[in-house]
Amino acid sequence: MNWSRYCLWIVAVCMAQMAFAQTDTSKVYELPAVSVTGLENSHDHTSINIQSLSLYSLETKSPYNLSDALAKIPGISQMNTGNAISKPVIRGLYGNRILVLLSGLRFDNQQFQDEHGLGLSQIGIQQVDVVKGPASILYGTDAMGGVINVIEETPSAKGSNLDANVRLYSNTLGTLTDVGYIKSNGKTWYRIRGGVENHADYADGNNTRVLNSRNSGYYLKLGGGFNHRKWSQNNSYNFSYNRYGFILDSLTRLYVNNGRYSRSMEGPHHNVMLNVFSSINSFKLRKSDLKVTIGSQSNKRAEDEGSGEISLNMHLLSILENAKWEKQLTKKTSLIVNQQFTYENNTNYGKRILIPDAHMLEGNLAAFIRYKPNWQTTIEAGAGYNYKQIQTYKTKMLNIGSINTPDTTMRPFSIGRQSYNAMLGISYIPADRVTLKANVSTGNRAPNLAELSSNGLHEGTYRVEVGTPSLKMEQNINSDVSFEMERGRFYFTASAFYNHINNYIYLAKTNEPAWYGFDRYRYMQQNAALYGGEIRLMEKFTIRGHNIYLNQNYSQVEGRLNDGSYLPFMPANKLHLSATYNIGVNPHNVPQEDQTTLIHYRGTIYIEPELEYILAQNKPANFETATVDFALVNLHLGYRYNSKNDNTTFITLTCRNLLNKAYADHLSRLKYYGFNNQGINIILTVKTNLHK
User: Fold this and answer.
1) For position 482, what pLDDT does the model report?
2) pLDDT by residue (tens digit) across 322-331?
3) What share of the chain is helix, strand, coil (3-state, %, to 5)?
4) Above 90 in pLDDT, residue 114?
5) I want to staple 451 with a disulfide (CB 3.0 to 4.6 A). Which of 67, 298, 523, 672 is the partner?
């Protein structure tokens, strides 16, 4: 038995012993409400598998970015190329099979490449809701594996709030600083937030520096709106500019070592600039509700391969609209009609081109019925239609020639794809705080521009990728069942799923002659299936007036192609164990008989040891390598102080990979270069809120 199994056994024994400690019968806690655009519901009264990540989790866990924060949810992992470039993986699906909503509209950050990350910071975010499973009837294409809805901060009461946040990272010698101000008079409100982060190269568990893993970012968020009796509006603007270094095995030979503290981007790197505007308008009609959201997104991605000049330079412009109409037909039946439209235009400005100039149109129309015959039962059903059209153009490369001309294999083309989707589900509450759910739903995804038309070398992966214009649309059908129970101090949930995908698109190495030493890969299709599930148990104990929360969860997923081979980038099975101990300090001056709960304390200290055990992944895809099991020990410490005028100071200390374990996660793209993931990282966060 190796060290990680010993550690796992010791923690399990400790948790078993703690179960015999003094306890009470108070409930664990109330699960947060969810707010998913197109479907707004409580946690219990929907058949859809929805989980939320709160602002508290974003603060206490000190994530590196939003993808890193989401990876704490059972069933969600992250594919990464170093720390900064990462994207969420929901039950084995990622990239264009996961739909991200930002400020109420779908978000496209050119995630068609594995090394193109989600690119969203955690600053200024109030909550993130995650839908596991297809939701294409409400969101159109790409919502095959799930939906991530990013909800930005809004005022909760009258008054103003000024907050300042500073976060320090020991491993990357990095900082993340942001300042925000929000004010509301009850009818109108506005907010502003600015932030900056900067990181040097990280070091792995062997204290080996991973060259050029550095990154930096600048952020600006503006918002404002009003609340009238029949019309409310929420406007938001997001700007970000990020730079991410390329991490390549050749850098150890070619890259100039310019010092441990250097942030210089003289080596190969991405430059990504994002501008997002959206306006959410909610109308109270006579006997129904209407929500109309409009917006635009500008995403500019440039790459410098190390020469000091920009080679790949793409601009993706998106115009988006979504309308949702909801009406209570009877006391037991409600109807939701959802419509959305998306226009995207991709334009190349660089000397090197991976995908051609193109425009894309998509329209979606769906109807969703919710029937509640009694308080125990909720039946949901829906159907939708989607059409997507892609037109590519002859694309000129500056001063070099052209692509998609008769002397190449790719020529301009126009493709239209239509699809139908449906959903049927039931949520049943047989007893108080016991919920059974079952859901069958479909999803679809049109091949993206890279899969259809790429034709060139991508330095981020160092392979020649060739698209296939004849690719069919992916279509999946997913069945999901779950059980939830809360009994006093216990909360337990378990879910299982089976996801069948027709025409799954994947990249495969060919036997074609290499291009100047670089292997050729082509996009291919065949049917596939993914299956697995998650289990979670939370327990609450009280010892001498202080609360202890035990959290245990396990998740697994397996994916296979129709020929029996395994799907790429399948996360390894994962076990997570943690224990949180809350201690109230500095009690208010109240009568002794009233000092019975933590809400009467001005300050709270929490201590949370955490163990993540990642099992071996011995089922790699054809061009992948297997990975061994490993265990990571983390420690979270925090202190929150509440003054008499409701101002707060929050200090956290997070130690990630406390034992400085040298490991390579299966979803790390760096393991193919022989690089490990990050070693020990001590993160100090100080946050101050001033209310008025």
Assistant:
1) 95
2) 999 999 999 9
3) 10, 60, 35
4) no
5) 523
Task: Let me know: does 553 contact 576? Beta carbons within 8 Å.
Answer: yes
Q: In angstroms, rounded to a whole number, what is the distance separating the alpha carbons of residues 66 and 52? A: 13
DSSP string, 319-332: EEEEEEEEEE-SSS
For the four alpha carbons of 190, 196, 202 and 205, in that order, the dihedral sign comes to negative
Please identify which residue in the block is written with the tokens 């065949």. Answer: 526
Rounded CA separation 342/105 (Å): 10
CA atoms of 467 and 392, how far apart (whole Å) = 13
Selecting from 3.30.230.70, 3.40.640.10, 1.20.120.430, 2.40.170.20, what CATH number does the domain 3-691 have?
A: 2.40.170.20
Domain ranges of the chain: 3-691
Burial of 619 (0-12, 13-18, 19+ CB in 10 A): middle
Confidence at 305, pLDDT banded by 50, 70, 90 = confident
Q: Which residue has the tokens 């509450």?
A: 429
Q: What is the DSSP string of 473-518?
A: PEEEEEEEEEEEEEETTEEEEEEEEEEEEEEEEEEEE-SSPPBTTB
Confidence of residue 147 (pLDDT cuts 50, 70, 90): very high
What is the rounded distance in angstroms from the CA atom of residue 653 to the CA atom of residue 170?
11
DSSP reduced 3-state for 46: coil
Q: Residue 206: which of 674, 660, 672, 634 has the closest Cα?
A: 660
Written as six digits, the tokens of 340 are 């959305």
The percent of residues in the chain predicted with pLDDT above 90, rounded, is 51
Tell me the average pLDDT of the chain: 84
Identify the residue with better confidence: 330 or 604.
330
- Distance between CA 10 and CA 2 in Å, rounded? 13
H-run or E-run covering 536? strand 520-543
Could you tell me the pTM of the whole model?
A: 0.87
Are residues 308 and 268 in contact, defined by beta-carbon separation less than 8 angstroms? no
Task: Pull the structure tokens for residue 525.
Answer: 């299709």
